[in-house]
Write a structure and sequence with these properties.
The protein is built from 13 helices and ten strands. The radius of gyration is 18 Å and the shape is globular.
Length: 284
């Protein structure tokens, strides 16, 4: 057993200069990738946006598991040392699928566990609202674990299915987005909350509008920064921090969209070479 542990440790150590893989159904995961770029500037990122199937929130669990499985294989082929599932729906439904696909070849991180840990660690939230896609909310991934970890925290979950497509189409920080956000957040499900979890990686893009709606009176848990910090901690723990000058980030999509190209360039503030990769025909 000791020999196996040593062998695994050496294999992980030798891959420290390999890239980090990140995937989502669209632009939402870019919020996590951008936050990771800020706190891990020496790491190369390989991002896969499955824009051919966005949003994941209204897809069946079997489809989401299949998407996640093939994207994980794609990232492994590019020698990714870490794979970040930068999508709450995929994290809720396909985390174990990805781990089974990856085995011990890379570190797998979802975006749900770090946020829940932050809610519990904060200790001040007594009534937490959760907003996300239908798939994330239906899974109960947040509510079940929060209740398991703390009986003192009340959880109110509500699906907000219009938000991710709205953001993908570029409708945020305008009159349309403010109207839809206000309608959702004013519903009875969220009455009396003192904190809100943005349980979709798209939602940090409308965080300022959510803060404005609540007039800064409740705490907002922003998954992008929380997850990025967690990734760094796990990489330090597993000795996976790169020691060489980083290569240029790579961005792949399964279907080209102008909104993705614009968002990627805005997040990383330089010219982005977006590569179309038809993974679904390739795998056949």
């Amino acid at each position: 057993m000791a020999f196996l542990f040593t062998l695994a440790f050496r294999m992980i150590s030798s891959s420290a200069n390999n890239p980090i893989g990140v995937f989502d159904s669209g632009i939402g995961g870019l919020t996590v990738a951008a936050a990771m770029h800020q706190i891990l500037p020496n790491e190369q990122l390989i991002y896969f946006g499955d824009t051919a199937h966005l949003p994941y929130g209204d897809k069946s669990p079997d489809n989401i598991k299949e998407f996640a499985k093939y994207i994980s294989a794609f990232l492994l082929e590019r020698n990714c040392k870490v794979i970040v599932i930068a999508c709450n729906t995929a994290s809720a439904i396909a985390y174990q699928t990805v781990k089974n696909e990856v085995k011990n070849k890379a570190l797998v991180i979802n975006v749900i566990d770090p946020v829940i840990d932050e809610v519990i660690k904060n200790g001040k939230s007594r009534h937490v609202g959760i907003i996300g896609t239908k798939g994330t909310i239906k899974s109960g991934a947040y509510s079940k674990r929060i209740k398991k970890l703390s009986s003192k925290v009340k959880v109110s979950s509500m699906a907000t299915p219009l938000l991710a497509p709205m953001i993908e189409e570029g409708f945020y920080n305008n009159k349309i987005s403010r109207t839809i956000i206000s309608d959702y957040l004013s519903r009875p499900y969220l009455t009396g909350i003192d904190a809100l979890v943005l349980a979709c990686t798209h939602y940090p893009l409308i965080k300022s509008e959510i803060v404005q709606h609540y007039k800064n009176k409740i705490h907002i848990y922003d998954s992008a920064n929380i997850v990025a910090q967690y990734v760094k901690e796990m990489m330090l723990k597993n000795q996976l921090i790169s020691t060489v000058k980083p290569k240029k980030h790579k961005f792949y999509v399964s279907d080209y969209t102008t909104s993705f190209a614009a968002s990627a360039s805005r997040f990383f503030k330089d010219s982005i070479q977006l590569e179309l990769y038809d993974l679904w025909n390739y795998k056949k």
